[in-house]
Amino acid sequence: MDDTYSIPDRPAQPVVVTKPCHPISRQDVDPDALKIIYRLHHLGFTAYLTGGAVRDLMLGRPAKDFDVVTDARPGQIKKRFARAFIIGRRFRLAHVHFAGGKYIEVATFRRISDQAARETPAEESAPAHPYGTAEEDAFRRDITINALYYDVINDAVIDYVGGLEDIACRTVRVIGNPAERFTEDPVRIWRVLRYAARLGFAVEEAAEREILVHAHLIAASSGARLYEELNKDLAFETRPVMETLRRYAILRHVFGKAGEAYETDADLFVRLSSLLDLADGARAAGVQLTIEEMYAVLFWPWLQPLLEAAGVDYHKVLSDAFRDAGMKVNIPRNLRADSSQVLIIVAAMDRAMRTGRMRWSLLQRPHFGPAQRLYFIFFKGRLPEKDESFEALFRQAFPGGGEGTRRRRRRRSFRSRSNLE
Ligand code: ATP
Ligand code: MG
Fold this sequence. Notes:
single chain; alpha+beta; Beta Polymerase, domain 2; 8-stranded mixed sheet; two-stranded parallel sheet; 20 helices; 10 strands; disordered C terminus; binds adenosine-5'-triphosphate; binds magnesium ion
């Protein structure tokens, strides 16, 4: 085990920054997270806010989720909070539920990772349980800026790993030896690049070198974990992250041939990039695309040429493309089916606008709404206004297409088993 990853024999003195030398205010913290922290404190436990919330609040950004970490064990939390539920098998943690389906994750301080723990000699090997101290918990985290604690009671930020310094010099630094940490969990490569991209931070040099060496390990990660990470990026600031993943040639290890296409064909990626920009912009304006829409956006530039060239069977084109791509990310079947349905209708709309023939029965399909929205994004570069529809666009382009034509066209398309499905 590399020294930089070992926890010192004696507890290191953390850097503790009190007001007014940090910008976090209790008012920025979710009131339910505060309640949990105060309650645990009252019961004699230590409890801090941690992870992304502290990082984002330190940077003056609004925090998304408020994770609490404590020295109380899951069983103790469950006993003391009526609405606490224990989740996770390997590492148990508590979800404390509040009104409206909301919950706060409350984790117990964890020891360094299992892998690193296994590498310690047997006689000093740690107890069977996975719990540890605040310091150990900080060291098992991925990057220094994600390992800060906010001590609400004393209004202080606690830093065991140099995260404050890295925030100041805008650097993403892996905790410990990057080669070891990436081998242990290659998904961390993705995470390093995500936070560098989202925050506009630099990746420290040693980590950058090891990313290039270890990137291929991502392909061997669990497809379910890759799906989890991908969803985080499709929900938030998608374009900068995808662009950074491409720069480090990570896309091929996640999306197989689709990723390769995005990495080798600059024009294709420019198209994807501008669509993701639109999705990010819509989100910033309060319009969040659904998950099946985001997956449809993600694959449209790659699939569009295949669909355009397709003769009859759009379904087959899509299922062949996904089958042959050798994707490592495990996209659930239902989600892929939904996104495919949306893309098939968009492709049909595109063809209709080129040929003047539309199969209007598509209007009845449950995926027509999302497809119409994406048609505007793909072909108009914007979301549709409230009173806009594909039908109006089509009728404007083909003014002869009144109701009669609509019925005639529908019959004709049935007779000829149109190739729009
Ligand atoms: P955000 O939710 O804003 O993307 P986050 O930092 O909260 O950022 P999560 O994925 O929610 O990210 O993870 C919560 C915390 O768990 C992280 O801040 C980090 O400390 C730790 N963590 C997550 N994944 C790993 C990992 N693979 N290895 C080590 N620590 C991790
Ligand atoms: Mg989080």
